[in-house]
Known about the structure:
The chain is about 30% helix and about 35% strand. By secondary structure, it is α/β, with parallel strands linked by helices. About 45% of the residues are buried.
Amino acid sequence: MEKKWFYEKMSPETVYGYHVTPVHEEKTDFQELQIVDHAHFGRMMILDNVVQTTEKDEFIYHEMMSHVPILAMSRPVKSVLIIGGGDGGILQECLRHDSVERVTMVDIDGRVIDVSKEMLFFKEGFKDPRLELIVGDGAAYVASEEAQNKKFDVVIVDSPDPVGPARVLFEAPFYKNIKDCLNDDGIMVRQAGVPVFQAPELTEAVEHIQLSFPLVQVYRGVVPVYGGDMAFVIASKDGSSLNVPHGDFMGRYYHTRFHSAAFVLPAFWYDLTGLPME
C-alpha cells in the first residue's frame, strides 16, 4: 500500500503526524482499527484515530503499568486482573513474574485481540496457560459476583481515554467494584493521560478513586507517542504506601531504583491532584 499521513489530535489545536504505510484496516463492532508501519516507531496499532501502541516505545507504558503495582506489593503477587489490554502488552509484562499464577484479561473487542495476535508483537502471552481470556465488558465483569468472589492481588485498568463507551471505566462506581474484587492488601492502577494535554483526566481519576480507596498515589513515565510525561494513578485497599518496591526487577525502562523516583512529581501535578508533596 502507498504511504499516507495519519494525524492524531492531541488538543483542539495540536496534532501529531505520522507518515505511515497501511497494513490493515477494519471497523469492528466497537471501533475503527488500523495497523500501520512507520519508519521510526515501527508497527503501530491505532483505534478510532488514537495511537494505542508502537513497536518502538510500547515497553515504557506496559512496564510502568505492570511492574510498579506488582513490585509495590509487600508479598509475591499471585493473581492479576487486566481490564482492557487487548493488544497483549500488559499481559506479556505481568507474565514475566514467576510468582503470578493466574491472569484474567477482559477486553470488549475480540477483533483487537485477534488482530493483535496475528500482527503485533505480544503473541507469546496469549499462549500462556496462566491466562484466562474473556471477551466482554470490563465494567460489567468487575461488578459481577464471579469477579468479586474470585479476588485478585492486582487490578490493572488499561483503557482508552474517557470518551464514548469507555467513559464508564472512569466513573466512581467502577472503582468501588474494583475494590470489591481485590484481596485485602490488593492494589489497583490505571493510566490518567498526559497532564500537559489532559489535565482534567488526572484530577478526576484521583478524585473518583479516593472515594473508594484509603490511599491514592500518582507516578509518572515518559511515553513519547502518547505526548510525553504520562500519569498513572495507583491505590491500595489497605492504605499501604506504594512508592517502595519489594523485590528486584530489571526491564528495559522500569528498574527498582527508578520505582521510587517515579513517584516524585512535577509541582503542577500536585496542584492538579491535591496530593501532598512528600
